[in-house]
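User: Structure please.
Assistant: Input sequence and predicted structure:
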Amino acid sequence: MRILKWLNKYFEETLLVSLLGVIFLTMLAQIFARYVLGGSLLWSDELTRSCWVWVAFMSIPYCILNNRHLKVDTVTELLPGKIRNVLLVMIQIYLIALWGYLLYGSVNVVKSVIMGNQMLVTLKISLAYVYGAAIAGFAFGIFRTFQQLLICVKDIGRGTSSLVDAQKEEIEEAMEAS
């Protein structure tokens, strides 16, 4: 159970930090090879690009989990508690539908890549592993948005708004610190 709690809290963050570490080390090795050894690593660009794709798509669930995604909340801030919570529930349902639609499209793209047997030339692996980042990002996006939906539904009964209140507290703490 402790492992599941840890994964729930830190999975995306750990993955993103690891991928950024791989990017950093790969680029460092490329710089060393080019300027010290006088040659270059043929595979470094593909590996770095592939890791960036994974970072981009896995940032979706990370931002949802930490309530850091781009949003305009002017209207929701003006609404009373229960109405705001109902609107937040409707937004979460819309986002689940959006992630589901994008997931469906990304599955079709990966299927076509597999059927076409497309490969990364220097790494000699299927391009489906890179495009699979979209599937993972959107699937985890659905999972994290569903978690947010459950929080919003609970808040309707309580008359509070945990997501909005937590974000306000973070902003106030940041303002006090600076």
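The first strand starts at residue 119 and ends at 120.
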